[in-house]
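User: For documentation purposes, I need each entry recorded in a consistent format: the amino acid sequence on its own, followed directly by the corresponding structure tokens. There are two entries in this batch. Please keep commentary to a minimum and don't merge the entries.

Assistant: Recorded as requested. Entry 1:
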Amino acid sequence: MLKPLLISLATLLAPATFTYAHVTTAMVAPADRIATAREVIANMQAAVAKGDADAYLALVDRAEHEWWHEQKAWAKDIAAKTPTAITITPGDDWTIGTFSDLPSVEVSLTWVWTPQADERVAAPQPKEDEQEPAQPRERELTFRGRFIERDGGLLYAGEAWQLVQREGVIVAFDPGLETAANAAAEAFAKIRADVEAELDVLGGPISTRTQRIKLYGSMRHLQHSIYPSYVFPLSGWNEPDESIKAVSRPDATEKSFIALLAHEYGHVASFELGPKANSMPWWILEGIAELMVDRHDENLAMRSRDQVKKWVKEDAMTPLAELADFEKVPLKLHGRVYRQGHDMMRFVTRHYGKADRNSWLRAMSSGESIEAAAQRELTESWDDVQAAWRSEIEQDLAAVPAEVPAEAPAGATGEPAKK
């Protein structure tokens, strides 16, 4: 999704230079353009309220590849999980100008919506004077939105971001996050080649692609950018053809971005393995991403192994098959997706080697089942692979008792939810 301030990609300066891209603005917008924007906003609200994905997307600008794919996912969500209430209210701070040489108008947008209840999250407890559980809480968010004129009409183009550009990366960010944006750009340059090499995609199309990263000043904004029903806590997100998204503090440093971007770019690289990569089991997708963090966090592997040893000792391991579908895994098990997935992917790498591991991943990314891919690429049945992993954990447990907190952190990046 996107955010405030006046910027244009066309005016970005040379790589390795921090810059704001500017649009030409005037503080008083012509009445006709304001009226048109108000109509677009009203139609957006009506489409969301009805769960009409097609009507909503007809109001969205399609020029930026990642934005368009993000909005398609957003629209799919409103059709499947239509908010029970929604208002989108423009402020009084209208400005007009041009963006990418096209007429544009900007204004603060306040979104107020109530998501449908999610069965993966424990229902809120009823208040003492209520007989039924409380309804999902109303959510509110304000950011500055942009509308671009095309073919005589205005289209919603998301937030009016500020931007930082480096070679191979553009970081879009909320006002006040310019220091963090520069740090993120520098961190990305340091993790990029290693991630691509680990998954054998270095030198492919991904290596020359400009990666987009979006930094949000609040988790609420990041959640809203994913889709309106998203309520799980998280610090980062990535899906095929979308930007890497992350929550950031104003004082975030390059070091603080290394693990998070290694994890998220691990997702980006894994989607290069085949057309059905994102259909691999969720624990594999997160396990791959956590593997990319290993070289930057020397304690992550130990934390994952200590946690799974604890679960084995307590006979509380969750079958991997129950951690495969993001849409079905309950929130209380999200941490296991990361820890069990990471430990299993490390086991596969150690015992079969990086080349066979990646061949196994490519086979699944081309549509093979996990069982068929294991038999062909790892030359063992999937049941045998799992049994060997369990046996190794038990041997490790017998040698050194596990000492970990009652529940370890969900992910190296601090994201207990998706991607």
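Entry 2:
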Amino acid sequence: MHSANIMVLGADGVGKTTIIHRYLGSSFDADYSPTNGIKVFIDEGTLAGYDVFLTLSDVPYNKTVKVENADIVLIVFSLADQDSFISAKEFLETIEDVPVIMVGNKSDLPNKVSASELDSLGVPLITITTKRDYDIHLLFDMIGTELIRHRHNGKCFMCQFCWHCGDCKCCITN
């Protein structure tokens, strides 16, 4: 079985924990309490058609967060909060060598982030709403696709075969 270390980070109140809870099958909890420290969730699931052992780390945003052990980073911001978007963009600029998906949550609320700001990010982006469970599974499909596209030291993330010599059977090589 493959494994994937997914880091979910963002400012307080943007919906990091709720994204994880929704993916794991929980309902929306309107009672907000900020995450203290890092919470880790373990699950077996399917990403891009592969059975995967998932480690989902719920990480509050701060300038000392290290992402080098993550296979992919989700940077979550609230579409209804311009400040959370600015923080997310600042953190995006610090990440190298790890695939990133920007996640605009709370699409059910009045939007404070413009379409041109979203278009300027230069990384994969998805807008969701955890309150209504809208596009959570589409987000995890996107994670699987990005993990397959990202190659570690010339090897496919999923099958670990070399994509240079054509041994890899699952990579998207274009």
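Summary note for entry 2:
The mean pLDDT is 83.
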